């Protein structure tokens, strides 16, 4: 771990990868963009640094010695609510990466474009900052900030979702997707719009990220995911919340 004094005004990013040349490239580009960096080359060290240093964002490779990235993500998520971007060479891992049991915010497939990765990092940091400010403001307000559509109820102050008064446990990203759709019941929202408005990407990002997140939400709020009644797909277009 670096011994240098961190600039408290800068955001700190923990880079976790066992390939040192990738770490070096990321450190160079992140510091050029004005971020502090921390490094770990194995999963156990990553957990120790994350819990002790509490970085603002974590770049986490899946294939790691001592403890793999999926286990690291799960361990960190028990304590920290910071954006986690998974770095993976396995495209098909997206289901696990964005899965409810892990709670990663995003993934980037190797080999990645540094420009794209920087855009993803900025978008996730921006989203986390907005959410943090929103939470701080909501602590001082009465709990009346709700969206109710049929059996679906979202408490925006508590970040709580209920279906017929039963609380459903969603990740922050899942909550944000559901909130965006529930604010416009009956209106079909394209995947591209969701990617831009919820993830914060304008030109970057994989549409499958939206599909996987929607599927995870359905697994939690629908009785029958093969015949959803709340979160509906408009084939070839996007998604909407049923208005009744």
A few lines on this structure:
The chain is of the alpha/beta class and 244 residues long.
What does this structure look like?
By secondary structure, the chain is of the alpha/beta class. 40% of the residues lie in helices and 20% in strands. The protein contains eight helices and twelve strands. Strand 4 (84-88), helix 4 and strand 5 form a beta-alpha-beta unit. Residues 138-143 have low confidence and may be disordered.
Which band does the percent of strand residues land in?
15-25%
Cα shape: elongated
| Strand order across the largest sheet | 2-1-3-4-5
The stretches of 5 or more residues where confidence is low (pLDDT under 50) are 138-143
Gyration radius (Cα, Å) is 18 Å
Biggest sheet, in brief?
Answer: 5 strands, parallel
Number of helices: 8
Give the averaged pLDDT, no decimals. Answer: 83
For the termini, the CA-CA separation is 54 Å
Helix % is 25-40%
Structural class of the secondary structure composition? Answer: alpha/beta
H/E element string?
EHEHEHEHEHEEEEHEHHEE
How many strand elements?
12
Helices, strands, pairings?
Elements: E1 12-16, H1 20-32, E2 36-40, H2 43-53, E3 57-61, H3 69-77, E4 84-88, H4 94-97, E5 106-109, H5 114-138, E6 146-149, E7 152-155, E8 160-163, E9 166-168, H6 172-182, E10 189-190, H7 191-199, H8 207-221, E11 231-234, E12 238-241
Parallel strand pairs: 1-2, 1-3, 3-4, 4-5
Antiparallel strand pairs: 6-7, 7-8, 8-9, 10-12, 11-12
Helix pairs in contact: 2-3, 6-7, 6-8, 7-8
């Amino acid at each position: 771990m670096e011994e240098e004094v961190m600039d408290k005004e800068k955001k700190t990013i923990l880079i976790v990868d066992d390939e040192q040349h990738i770490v070096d490239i990321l450190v160079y580009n992140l510091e050029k963009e004005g971020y502090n960096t921390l490094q770990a080359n194995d999963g156990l060290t990553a957990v120790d640094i994350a819990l002790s240093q509490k970085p603002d964002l974590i770049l986490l490779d899946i294939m790691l010695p001592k403890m793999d990235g999926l286990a690291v993500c799960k361990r960190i998520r028990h304590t920290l609510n910071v954006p986690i971007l998974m770095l993976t060479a396995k495209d098909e891992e997206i289901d696990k990466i964005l899965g409810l049991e892990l709670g990663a915010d995003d993934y980037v497939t190797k080999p990645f474009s540094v420009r794209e990765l920087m855009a993803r990092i900025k978008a996730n940091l921006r989203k986390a900052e907005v959410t943090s400010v929103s939470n701080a403001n909501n602590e001082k307000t009465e709990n009346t900030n709700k969206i109710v559509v049929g059996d679906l109820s979202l408490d925006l102050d508590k970040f709580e979702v209920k279906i017929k008064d039963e609380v459903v446990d969603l990740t922050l990203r899942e909550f944000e997707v559901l909130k965006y759709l529930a604010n416009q019941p009956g209106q079909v929202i394209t995947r591209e719009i969701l990617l831009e408005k919820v993830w914060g990407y304008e030109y970057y990002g994989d549409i499958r990220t939206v599909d996987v997140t929607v599927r995870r939400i359905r697994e939690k709020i629908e009785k029958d995911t093969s015949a959803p009644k709340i979160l509906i797909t408009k084939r070839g277009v996007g998604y909407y919340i049923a208005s009744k």
